[in-house]
Design the sequence.
């Protein structure tokens, strides 16, 4: 059965192209509302979220937020918007965060080091309830246990782009015959996904 759920899309500028692509693929299911991500003269946020004025298209709807946490400033700006959306009587909230930037900092080996993955998880976990748990969609987290850092109002669903990479590596004109991982942890996490599909490709750390 095809899913008929309709989503109102709010997106950070870095994800605007994806928002427009989703809307073009199925305008009845995905409706994109551009947001004004402005700043006051002192550098603090002055944001006007689309879909509220002059008619409120957000209340009672399923909302899909396309996020990009590529630096600390934009991350805080988006948490401002996410909090507001959760308090806008939405039916459900889904956050697509393809890259979880602090995912590799989920543990420390020396006192005084800040586990920033934990901090970000706490911010997500303590967002206002939106009627049901907020769904945080992440791709290829550093470790599978990262998802257990989220609780309360926000729960994570894990996804992977590895099949797309494997498909590209299988193309006849592909000349890559070796995969290199940045560390032992990444190798343990992803090596098993490549080996059955690409037995002739060497894996290195």
Sequence:
């Amino acid at each position: 059965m095809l899913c008929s759920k309709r989503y109102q899309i709010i997106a950070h500028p870095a994800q605007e192209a994806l928002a427009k692509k989703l809307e073009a693929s199925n305008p009845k299911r995905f409706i994109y509302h551009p947001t004004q991500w402005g700043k006051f003269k002192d550098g603090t946020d002055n944001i006007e979220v689309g879909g509220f004025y002059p008619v409120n298209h957000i209340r009672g709807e399923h909302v899909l937020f396309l996020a990009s946490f590529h630096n600390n400033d934009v991350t805080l700006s988006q948490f401002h918007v996410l909090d507001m959306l959760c308090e806008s009587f939405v039916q459900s909230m889904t956050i697509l965060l393809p890259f979880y930037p602090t995912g590799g900092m989920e543990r420390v080996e020396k006192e005084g080091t800040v586990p920033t993955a934990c901090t970000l998880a706490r911010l997500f976990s303590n967002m206002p309830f939106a009627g049901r748990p907020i769904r945080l969609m992440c791709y290829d987290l550093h470790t599978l246990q990262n998802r257990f850092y989220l609780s309360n109002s926000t729960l994570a669903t894990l996804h992977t782009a590895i099949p797309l990479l494997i498909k590209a590596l299988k193309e006849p004109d592909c000349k890559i015959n070796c995969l290199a991982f940045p560390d032992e942890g990444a190798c343990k996490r992803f090596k098993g996904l490549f080996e059955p599909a690409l037995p002739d490709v060497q894996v290195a750390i």
User: Anything to note?
Assistant: The mean pLDDT is 84. The longest helix spans residues 72-86. Helices lie at 16-25, 72-86, 116-125, 162-169, 184-194. Strands lie at 7-11, 30-32, 36-39, 45-48, 62-66, 92-97, 134-139, 154-159, 178-180, 202-204.
